[in-house]
Predict the structure.
Amino acid sequence: MATHTLHKADTRGNAEHGWLNSRQTFSFASYYNPERMGFGALRVLNDDTVAGGRGFGTHPHDNMEIISIPLEGDLEHKDNLGNTEVIRQGDVQVMSAGTGVFHSEYNKHADREVKFLQIWLFPNRLNVSPRYDQVTLDMAAMQNNLQQIISPAPGSHGGAWIHQDAWFHMGAFEKGRQVAYDLKKEGNGVYLFVINGSFTIDGQSLEKRDGLGIEGTAQVSITANEDNSQLLVMEVPMQVTQKS
């Protein structure tokens, strides 16, 4: 029998630093909730807004799969691997931190905000060589459809890849549109995050920035309740096994 865990948008952690407004679905930095330590391999889901010209100075990561999805504006990335890139709405960035990487992220523009999702997953392999990947999505393919944006295998049906048996999909739907998501791997769960609009998912009503974790199911039913309803679907292992 499926288990549902609902996280309403207004119950998330909130860090307000003037230049940064971060809403955190799971415990992160100064926000700590022992009941919200992640969802399986999904450890961090931050909904960040960064003021013009501001950002995160150079800082380290290791043994984590880090995914950035811009929702509005342009985010400038630099790292010690030699990557200097700008990620925009419609792009997805992946960084496998592995043995260690240093990077910075800044709002490229001084006159407007940048909004993006910062997502961390535990990898299934420890101490891999750090790597960077960035892809531009086919936005037309997301219309009334769940487009794959992340998978465990390079070149597998588009999108970027990570060191984890996880699949991410995004879609934008008109009111009344229905779709079913079939999980790819037995034992995985799925976490659904409403970017815009509203949905009914397995009978549960979700509004903008609500999240719903579902375990013990092979399929999820999704119905958009208004036009331009946008959804991120994250299928992840519920048990994390890491190889050295």
Q: What stands out?
A: Residues 25 and 157 are 29 Å apart (CA to CA). The domain at 3-237 is CATH 2.60.120.10 (Jelly Rolls).
